[in-house]
Request: fold
Amino acid sequence: MIPGGGWRPSVAVWKFASCDGCQLSLLDLEDELLALAGAVRVAHFTELSRADEGGPYDVSLVEGSITTPEDADRIGRVREASRVLVTIGACATAGGIQALRNFAVAGAYAPVVYAHPEYIASLATSTPIAAHVTVDVELHGCPVDRRQLLEVITALIAGRPPVVPGHSVCQECKARGTVCVLVAAGVPCLGPVTRAGCGALCPAVGRGCYGCFGPAESARPSPLTNRFIRLGVSRPDLQRLYRTFNAAAPAFRSEHLRHDPPD
Amino acid sequence: MDVRPSRPPADDWAVLDPQGIDRLIGALGRRGYRTLGPVVRDGAITLAEIAGVADLPAGWRDAQDPGRYRLERTESPAFFAWAVGPHSAKAQVLPPRDRVWRASAGAGGVEIAEAGVDAPPTALVGIRPCDVAGLGVLDRVLGAAGAADPAYLRRRAQTFVVVAECGSPAATCFCTSMGTGPDARSGFDLALTELVDGGGHRFLSRSATGAGAALLRAVGGASATTIDRRSRDGVLGDAAARIRRRLDRDGLPALLERNLEHPRWDEVADRCLACGNCTMVCPTCFCTSVEDTTDLTGASQRERRWASCYEVGHSYIHGGPVRPSTRARYRQWLTHKLGTWHDQFGESGCVGCGRCVTWCPVGIDLCEEVDAIRRADGATAARPAPGGS
Ligand code: SF4
Ligand code: SF4
Reply:
């Protein structure tokens, strides 16, 4: 644990296979940015500055998944240089949208996309950081919620456990008084099996939850899928519901594989 | 079961027309109440601020089944021709998130400032008898002598209740089994019964408190006739007769206690998502979780938020959760609500509003679960060793 009390930890932000959206959430903390800059020392954060203090780092925030042999090596070096390693976002915690390759033959796409596929050296799968190194804290979401990101950093500075509940999105809907879109409008919604954190954004505007934060702590999607079937959702759509940013998270993975069309 | 409505003495009654209800809502506002009532929003009848009868859901009714809720249009001018919406009165007296205190480093060490309770005088207009009963259940939990929650008591003391007796139960309602409706018996300031018949669209009204009586006097209204009172008997008698759903309460706590290893718990756990919706919508589920956080200045605060026995962390004690499986959590919820609540608080924790049935995304129905256990009383599931579930 990091001790509290006027101590200013060094923070590094690392990018692996990802879109940068999660690390940019740090810069989206507009109201808290100055206080945050005062509370930590930014040692490595290429979206912010070219300056690089070098390691070791007190806290590393790691965005992105492992999709290349180089990155599989690099994450080991990041781990060695970091006292606390926090993964941020669906890519780092579950493999991200790019983990769709795990359910296809990745090599088959390269010639369609690239003029010179021989230049591409990538792994057959996209895997979360925790599949490679020990992770101290995981923060879910596509992208992460910036209030949760601030909470994790603040907790690390204070030396206390972060308050990041693993319960369902439904509890957030109910806390804000949103009318359930599944019960009152028959909209297929992943909220009951999805981890809270976004503040239940989509149901508040009448949309079903897309599952951006991945499976909730004890998610068991099959009874929900059975309900979707009764609502008339087609088999390909059932599969698509779970096959997005968190397609490789275990609870979602087993559910969409269950609906794989027979070969 | 006695389905005859309770009938207070005749001289307490007044009759208001729809304009009278409008005056009533206006008078509450002038007395400084934040006035909440039924409002159609996002496809449901929700509890929201109202300024007059124009905000009320005239011409709407609800159709409810396990896991399903739909609003439907009617020709009737009635304001209260629906059963219950997703929002009970709970959030008004026990907010989903509430600050308990803040602390910061001061000259003399840590300074703790208790959070002031944000408790504006609130009038709840048109809530149902089952929800009034739900407030009573909360009173006996959160207001119990020696263990009272001051923030709850403050908000509760600021709450003025205008109950609308129920003429339009849904298929999920079972207040008649729980003795909480469709007529209102206690726990309100004013009670209204909406009548729409040959005598016109009107509201038989009666007060149960001094504040209620004063308000009714200020609003004015005709005195009630025997015909009006008979109409009310008819409306409430019909409503009670239309409630087909039953919760068989005969020896219920003992039934549940001797069936903790019943195979039905495994069966329901297979359908349950552990999402916690049933606990959130329940007017009496009162669990909260206390969360301590700090900010970048080093100040800290304690908040409490609605929590659910379906959360893994809810039963966490050193080393792990006591109820790691969905089976254990569903069983905890049902046996507490209908069984051990009696041991703790001397009554059932359920008022028969049916919300947990309607708002469960997969339509799990507590009455059906109880029936299934009763049908095979004493059955036990084959299971390896105790402890794991
Ligand atoms: S009974 Fe229904 S509402 Fe309650 S936790 Fe299970 S699935 Fe969710
Ligand atoms: S247990 Fe269900 S029916 Fe009973 S009071 Fe709670 S929500 Fe209503």
Summary: Strands of chain A lie at 10-15, 41-44, 57-63, 82-88, 137-139. Chain A is about 35% helix and 10% strand. Residues 169-257 of chain A form one domain.
